[in-house]
Amino acid sequence: MEAACVTTHKFVRREPDPRPGSVPQSRRRGQADPVLTAAAYVLNLGRTLRDRRRRDTVAGVCTEELLHAVVALYDSGLPNVGSDGLYSTVCAKGTQTIMLLRNKEEATESYARRSLKGAADNPGNTVADGDQSGVHSGLVDIVPDEVPGVRAAGVNSGESAGAADPATGGCGTGGSGGGNTAPDEEAISKFAEVYSDTDSSEGSSSSSEEEEDFSGSIDQFLHDVRRRRREREAAPDDIGPSTIGVECCLLSALTYTTSRTTSGEKVFLLQLMATRKRFRKYGLGRFLLQMLKELMELWQYDAILVHADSGAVSFFTHHGFSDDVILNSKFKEYSDDWVNTTMMSYFPEYCTGRNAITKEEISIDVKKMDLDIKFWRDRSLAAYQAQAVCITRMKKEILSLRDQLLTQKKHIETLETQLQLSHEEKSQLRMGSTSCRLLAVEQMHLGIGQLSRGWMDDGEDNARAALSTQHTDDRELLGAEHETPPSPSEAGVLAALMGALGTWDAMKKGEATCTGVTAGASEAVGIQEVGVETRDPAVGHSGSGEDASCDEFKWSAL
To answer: Which stretches does the entry tag as region Disordered (predicted)?
Structure first.
């Protein structure tokens, strides 16, 4: 069954404005085709190959050969993915592939024209030289058109596209995918080695048993590619349609799948995309993206997601995709699908102009626009209300904190004032206490001097008799009332002694600052007392009870 063509389109090469004195790009690479005629096909390759009853063909090419050509196209632009990953991605369930296939007659004329020009420029070129270039150059020397690559490391845009090959029609090498840098054996063994492990592995799980290996016929496909290449090289003047295979007609491809997010949104996941490097500047990549956007509009999907490498971000940004982190956070469940990429999203417009498939004008969906505006207005109002409530509460909290701060500041000032007054009062009390202590010491010295002078004038015997008669014990001496009032000199001496004793007790319990002063006073008293006793040593050794009681009184008083 022949697959139906979706649309046929003519692509015109867009040459950049040449700089003064520069050589046109078409001359550097060989004469490029000014116009390409390509047909777009949308096909589920995996489902077609799984259904043994269906043997669909696309432009006269069987589906298996088309699959190998598509995988080789992706492998040239996305070498880091690997052939096994490419086959599994392209043939996954629900995955669709959009392919642009060139008209076979036009491709034949183009190859014949370039082969004749290449033979004239390089008359020494032989078939053996073409064999050395490798079969892989006809398959894998397919590099992205306007995109360095989707998902993987892509193609190094700084590498040369290679010279026009007269045998292959100028499919030059380029990109990190390998190209003609590897010999034929390495290119063939690359595909064979990757899938030989899959063929010999023992699949224990049900999922591995259900997976089908679609790379089994890769050897036959590479053999046919080599044969067609040799035929073109052997007869460059007689290149017919039989020498033009699908690898010569495939210009660009795009693989996508559909999915539904956890929030219920329907999205397109753009998995793979690549374009042959020779056919850059024709707008093939832009045309494929436009078809995908129109399919999204037709099926009413909400967005298109793509994981682009660093070299492809600018291309997708130019075509309306956004890498905004906040905007793409709603699709974070797909962020880990590919590594070393940037997730970008595209949201449909209200009017896409003219449909590329049906050529009909698309009117603006006013109803959907009004619904979106209403939704935005409601959400904006709710957001404003939430912000207003938050701002009001924050204002009240700030005013409350300000009042609390002022109260604390006043309290701190009051405490500082009280502390200053306390320091002043303490300083005054300390000065008064020091004055009182000095006065007490002076009084003590004065009383002791009067007592010693009285003892010296009246005589030691009279003083001892008077003390033993009037002061028999300490309590009676301090508190008793005498019938005979003492003489003025004795009253002054007793008052001085009482004041000295009170000052002595206070100084013993007081601050350490007065310790030196009281110690000096005590020494003075001791010296004076010793002087009194040493006047008459015989008295101290009389042994009478009266003398002993008098001595005890003197020392206890001091």
So the answer is: 115-220
Contact 270, 292 (CB under 8 A): yes
Domain residues for the domain of 293 are 7-11+33-346
Tell me whether residue 186 is in a domain. Answer: yes
Measure the N-to-C terminal CA separation of the chain; round to a whole number of Å. Answer: 138
Residue 389 forms part of a structural domain: no
Pairing of strands 35-43, 7-12: antiparallel
Specify the 3-state DSSP secondary structure of 20: coil
Output the CA–CA distances (angstroms, integers) from residue 379 to 15, 262, 376, 385, 393, in the order listed. 47, 21, 5, 10, 21
pLDDT of the residue at 554: 42
User: CA 369 to CA 372: how far, in whole Å?
Assistant: 5
Is residue 342 domain-shared with residue 461, that is, in the same domain?
Answer: no
Residue 166 confidence (pLDDT): 29
User: Does some domain include residue 427?
Assistant: no
Identify the three-state secondary structure at position 401: helix
Per-residue pLDDT, 152: 38
Q: Are 172 and 161 in contact (CB under 8 A)?
A: yes
Q: Which of 323, 346, 369 delimits the end of a domain? A: 346
Same domain membership, residue 341 and residue 225: yes
Spell out, as residue ranges, where the chain has pLDDT lower than 50: 26-29, 125-149, 152-209, 356, 474-475, 477-478, 480-483, 488, 511-558
pTM, 2 dp? 0.56
3-state helix vs strand vs coil in the chain, percent to 5: 55, 10, 30
Does residue 124 sit within a domain? yes
Strands 250-260 and 266-275, bridge-based pairing: antiparallel
Integer Cα distance of 104 and 241 in angstroms: 7
pLDDT in the model for residue 289: 94
CA angle 490, 492, 495 (to 5 degrees): 110
Give the model's pLDDT for residue 456. 59
Query: Does one domain contain both 190 and 296?
Result: yes
**The predicted structure's pLDDT at residue 115:** 74
Last residue of a domain, one of 319, 346, 373: 346
Q: Give the Cα separation of 71 and 68 in Å (integer).
A: 5
Domain count, the chain: 2
CA dihedral over 414, 420, 426, 429, signed as positive or negative: negative
For 196, the token pair is 């030989």
Quick one: 244 and 115 in the same domain? Answer: yes
H helical segments located in 301-365: 313-318, 325-328
Q: What crossing angle do the helices spanning 83-90 and 184-200 adopt, rounded to 10°?
A: 60
